[in-house]
Amino acid sequence: MNAPTLRRILNAWPPFLFTGIRVVRMDDYRYAKVRLKLTWYNRNYVRTQFGGNLFSMTDPFWMIMVLKSLGNDYIVWDQAGEIRFVAPGREDVYAEFRVEESLLDELRAATANGEKCLRWFETDVRTASGELVATVRKQLYVRRKRR
Q: What Pfam families would the database entry show (predicted)?
């Protein structure tokens, strides 16, 4: 499946659709931009972005993008995740994901002998003006498939 098709599927996927999460851009599996719109139905008790939605907006992207960029010879799974709240989200927020070739080379080298690699990926969640709202970290398990 190509990235624009996946973007359309994710935008119609109920966990994203009904929480105000939208994949704004995903031209290939090397870059994605996601928006979480602040609406009446996804605010928390103090009328700011719900923390679970901040985590959800970042959840699948590193795993999918690394898996698709490495290709079918690799296994990629989410291993762990954590979020650090920095400021209240009182408006729409955005997250961007970039998979650089140097990162893929690092993962290929670390898994060349069939060993697993556990690597952390960090994503900032920011307002349109650049204010940091949260930092999300995801740890991926990466390994070459056995032949």
A: DUF4442
